[in-house]
Amino acid sequence: MTTNVLENLQFRLAARPVGMVKDSDWQQVAEPVRELADGEILVKVLYLSMDPAMRGWMNDAKSYIRPVAIGEVMRAGGVGVVIASKSPRFAVGEHVFGTTGVQRYWIGPVAETGPSFLKVDPALAPLTTYLNTLGMPGMTAYFGLLESGQPKAGETVLVSGAAGAVGQTVGQVARQLGCRVVGIAGGKEKCDFVVKELGFDACIDYKGGSVRDGLKEHCPQGVDVYFDNVGGDILDTVLTRINLKARIVICGAISQYNNTTPVKGPANYLSLLVNRARMEGIVVFDYADRYHVGMAALGQWLKEGKIKSKEDIVQGLENFPQALNMLFEGKNFGKLLLQVAPA
Amino acid sequence: MTTNVLENLQFRLAARPVGMVKDSDWQQVAEPVRELADGEILVKVLYLSMDPAMRGWMNDAKSYIRPVAIGEVMRAGGVGVVIASKSPRFAVGEHVFGTTGVQRYWIGPVAETGPSFLKVDPALAPLTTYLNTLGMPGMTAYFGLLESGQPKAGETVLVSGAAGAVGQTVGQVARQLGCRVVGIAGGKEKCDFVVKELGFDACIDYKGGSVRDGLKEHCPQGVDVYFDNVGGDILDTVLTRINLKARIVICGAISQYNNTTPVKGPANYLSLLVNRARMEGIVVFDYADRYHVGMAALGQWLKEGKIKSKEDIVQGLENFPQALNMLFEGKNFGKLLLQVAPA
Q1: Whether residues A140 and A280 fall in one domain
Q2: Residues within 8 A of B (CB atoms), A 19-48 only
Q3: Does A272 touch chain B (CB under 8 A)?
Q4: Which member of A157, A186, B275, B294 lies 3.0 to 4.6 Å from A225 by CB, making a disulfide possible if both were Cys?
Q5: Do A270 and B263 touch (CB under 8 A)?
């Protein structure tokens, strides 16, 4: 095909944000798609994953991955369809998952060793599922909970951001393991969903009351595993209710990502000492060589109807800046996706 | 023997301290020793262990052990000699280690299940060693480092309170395991001792310069294991220098025990996430069923001259309040002991 009739709209990082991301931190660029070289493919992006971690990638700080450079297309995971190929590895019409970036089209080589894509099968699960339960949020939940949280049947597992992409899978997996599962989420609607639709034993509405009181009521035996997506005051409060040998999984700290003041450290961290408890950070990429194991387990539970996943889909690439900020305003309900083109 | 000719001087808790412990927080009581009942022994206290943890036991807060009650003899570990016995388990003249409390004499039953004493042999090691390397500080260092820190040969092990009772043993054990060992201590004299006498690779004087600069200089490969006895700003600074999969052992937080404001939480705790690192609290009592293993290992290294221990001995039970406060003023140099009677 002739690719240069296609116009590629991109969101590039214009400035390093201070606090919440502003429109002026983005530069929108539209350029024609270039011709493919040998070994390259062209992917039309269908859905982009909106992740809290993206805020961290925008900071010029040492982290588990290099920061997005000023002027670079914003990093994002996405699913798309191959619409042109000069690689024997991918055929036109195949669906793929990978780091597409925030743009309409991804073009580049798919060498064995470079940035690459995984094929996904829309006949096995809806494409959006590959950005949710069968994608990074699902893998984060599955491996973070099992490997770091190490829950045992009968224990109490608490998860914050319970209606979010990672939280909903954490709780449902913990239920499959025979745990008492309590969520923390913002608002009655999210809490009702978590309990009634996902089958959590209880959910604490941090906007509607005191987390401390909620923990007393819903975790009467204390907390054995806390899967933390939010940090801040909620982490500090949970530290007062952990059990002996408790495991705290630090997956994220969404309450702190847009801080313009220093991060609030957990003042109650000496509860770790009193309770011989553990707090451990996780990054999903560490489990990459076993994603197939997590996908098989979660895929089976999905097929059997034992776990569900909720997605919140914003339409239109042009709405990317607003969509991203929804995460930090607690406005998304379920895994937040941006639909770039009709699937 | 007739025991009631003996006068037992005791330090009882008079008030719950706010901040540093004041003389008025103690009540000195002198009372005659009562007659022994069947199954009881009378122990003459020789040395008492002065431990940072004692400050925590004075607070009315949930912890790993119940608080000392107002009016109760202050809890302390000690070594002593049995001077009267109506128990078949202990003979007069035997030396013992146990929770004697801050007093001249301990009297009570030594049932199998109640509070009890371990026999110690002054022919194998000086009595003071049983309150140091072969006692709680040594067991804390040995099991905390090995079980929670899990150091591997070639890794960098950092320990704060390096000239203190636990720190000196942590560092020397880590050296035996083939690690690079760096201490943090207050003042040139302590740092010189740690390097020249104990064989640490380096020691950072937190009073004489920036800990951040010291870490850059002396831990050029980053920190794999941090054994933390102090908390506060030093913990926060170390968090910026940890390696992937680092292990932080939370043994204590002496900088925070006399706070009248909330404990300073580690603002840089998200370094745990970035580095997939772990922070875990330890309490020595958890390893009680394996103390004999730790004592055998440390005893062997002591015998071979591979590890040393330094003690700082204050004379006279009447000086207990001042001795205890030395810990929080950083005035002790080595394991702090109070000699109650000539050995």
Answers
A1: yes
A2: none
A3: yes
A4: A157
A5: yes
Cα first-last separation, chain A: 20
For residue B42, give the 3-state DSSP assignment.
strand
User: For residue B296, how many other CB atoms are within 10 A of its CB?
Assistant: 11
- Nearest in space to A172 (alpha carbons), one of A63, A305, A46, A290: A305
Q: Are residues A106 and A218 in the same domain?
A: no
Task: State the residue range of the domain holding A46.
Answer: 3-132+309-339
Contact B272 A265 (CB under 8 A): no
φ, ψ of residue B34 to 5 degrees: the values are: -80, 170
pLDDT at residue B168 greater than cutoff 60? yes
CB proximity under 8 Å: A 66-95 to B: none
Q: Note whether residue B298 is domain-resident.
A: no
> What CATH number did the domain enclosing A121 receive?
3.90.180.10
Helix runs in A106-206, H state only: 136-143, 165-176, 188-192
* Average pLDDT, integer, range A212-224: 98
The total number of structural domains in chain B stands at 2
- Provide mean pLDDT across the span A265-269: 92
Complex ipTM tops 0.95: no
pLDDT, tens only, A22-59: 999 999 999 999 999 999 999 999 999 999 999 999 99
- Across the interface, of A236, A253, A274, the residue whose CB is closest to B63 is A274
Partners of A279 on chain B (C-beta within 8 Å) are 269, 272, 278-280
3-state SS class at A209: coil
With respect to residue B295, please indicate whether it lies within any of the assigned structural domains.
Answer: no
Q: Which chain A residue lies closest to B267 (C-alpha atoms)? A: A265
Residue of A236, A256, A278 lying closest to B280 (CB–CB): A278
- Chain A interface includes B288 (CB < 8 A): no
Angle between helices B211-218 and B232-239 (to 10 degrees): 40
User: Does the predicted TM-score (pTM) go above 0.80?
Assistant: yes
B273's tokens? 């996430």
A272 CA: distance to closest CA in chain B (Å):
5
Q: Is residue B240 located within the same domain as residue B334?
A: no
pLDDT tens digits along A79-123: 999 999 999 999 999 999 999 999 999 999 987 655 578 899 998
Residue pLDDT, tens place only, A131-155: 999 999 999 999 999 999 999 999 9
Q: Are residues B201 and B238 in the same domain?
A: yes
Q: B300 lies in a domain? A: no
